[in-house]
């Protein structure tokens, strides 16, 4: 291999690795939105899932159990969101913010109660790369695409599966119809309530995995506020991807690319004050919204509660 | 927005759900505290009464109240127009930077000039920071929730840059600037324990917001915009302009809270001076259901809990975050009480 190829491969590999929390959190947001449930608690759900997922892995010595517990936590928050908005018809933004607060609070409270303050942070092993037999031996591409941790494969598979499910199955069509025009869906005998619960819970679980990915891949431990706005960025990514699974997957490459760039330029010693590089992901996202927000197609009933007793729109 | 109060209930009717929400939240967390093996009664006694047992406790509470009430208004004023400003934290930080810049660049001015200039520096900087999401909303129709939140993260990097730049205090281990001019310090109302004049400013803002939103034409246009943007537009109110204005005013109030932290508390710019004021401000605004009359009372209650929480952590080793859960649950139960009443 020549000199230029190795850094390029590492760079591409790093982008795919960084893409995962964006993809999962954004697909979770998209799924809920497709039935009209607009989750804005991502940041809180990711934090509390990262915290609990980390603690469970630490005590059970099993990353698998840690990931499952993070999914359960995320699903539980999704269930709460669905219950308060679908059943009790409370304002989606307000409930989302309340769940965000609870997530943030629990995420710092639980490690303090369970582990306390320690001089050296408690560590869990990070997820290992799993090379896919044969495919990982392909020069160039093999190392980038087929020698990653399991959640990188998982994120891509989930995205493709969601595309197939939403666009190629009749159940997916019914599901989408509840977010576009619930009255029509309801009149066809599709249960808007069931669809909303289902997507909010599964969406929450995906956001939960996105959260626990951070301690499991990046740090090996939980630190306060470690999500660093990725939950909010995921909402922007969802709009950027036009609430479509494959577009979100592609869009996440851009978000991950900016994060990797910001990090790489910081360590390269370019002379640019590192604080401005820290701003880059957020500023780039705002800029992207300027260019894509108007053209983004959003589910027709996004963020609104459906009441079948109410007359028309 | 549906969370605005619609009918005119009596004071008693208003208070009952709040008291119930507080009791249920305390009970729920109390079970948790007991299960963790702590003394629940002692914990709650500390949380609720630290503010009222000693003059020091009461003044600590007033000092906490100042940033909290201002952060709450930075949220509720745009909420009256139907817009969610989650950027009070960034507006506070940038306001603090503006205030510190004025105080450091003009160190020799007398208090009569420097105090107003420092405060104004904070207000203007915060209002400009609020103008960015306002303008993006006006021009490109970009959701203000996202832009205001994302700008908070930009402000974290900005304050670090300023506090480690040319104004850095080399003696401090933590990113901190040199102090502002002596003339920029807010005067003390009580010397020991110190209570600075920021409390008067906060109360003036409370009165001003109340009169603006309920007694002025401009404020009526704001509320009308929030109640029904389409109807407001038909009656000739420039709805989009009202959106921008509401976020700019919020930015000014948020900036003022930063300026008060600089000129009243820290006397310099310190990274992290925003604490968790934003989230508490949001909780206050939501518990008050956007009612600007109720905001100061709720803010005082939350300040009592916060001061009690620190005391509880010191004496009983129960983490302060426990009280944060109480606050979040109070919010949830207050919101739920509306559902109960609707049925």
Biggest sheet of chain B, in brief?
2 strands, antiparallel
Distance between the termini of chain B: 19 Å
Radius of gyration of chain B: 20 Å
Report the mean per-residue pLDDT of chain B as an integer.
93
Summarize the structure.
Chain A is mainly α and 313 residues long.
Question: How would you describe this structure in keywords?
Answer:
heterodimer; A: 313 residues; mainly alpha; ABC transporter involved in vitamin B12 uptake, BtuC; two-stranded antiparallel ribbon; globular; B: 343 residues; 1% strand
Describe it for me?
- The complex is a heterodimer of chains A (313) and B (343).
- Chain A has a two-stranded antiparallel ribbon with strand order 1-2.
- In chain A, helix 1 packs antiparallel against helix 9 (192-219).
- Chain A has one domain: ABC transporter involved in vitamin B12 uptake, BtuC, CATH 1.10.3470.
- With 313 residues, chain A is mainly alpha-helical.
- Chain A contains 12 helices and 2 strands; from the N terminus they run ααααβαβααααααα.
- Chain B is mainly α and 343 residues long.
- Chain B has 13 helices and 2 strands, in the order H-H-H-H-H-H-E-E-H-H-H-H-H-H-H.
- Chain B has a two-stranded antiparallel ribbon.
- In chain B, a hairpin with a 4-residue loop joins strand 1 and strand 2 (195-196).
- Chain B is globular and about 55 Å long.
- Classes of the chains: A mainly alpha (313), B mainly alpha (343).
- At the A-B interface, helix 4, helix 10 and helix 12 of A face helix 6, helix 11 and helix 13 of B.
Would you spell out the secondary-structure blueprint of this structure?
The complex is a heterodimer of chains A (313) and B (343).
Chain A: H1 5-33, H2 42-60, H3 63-87, H4 92-114, E1 129-131, H5 141-145, E2 147-149, H6 150-168, H7 170-180, H8 182-187, H9 192-219, H10 230-240, H11 245-268, H12 274-292
Antiparallel strand pairs in A: 1-2
Chain B: H1 11-35, H2 40-53, H3 55-80, H4 88-105, H5 111-140, H6 144-163, E1 188-190, E2 195-196, H7 198-215, H8 217-227, H9 229-234, H10 239-266, H11 277-287, H12 295-316, H13 321-342
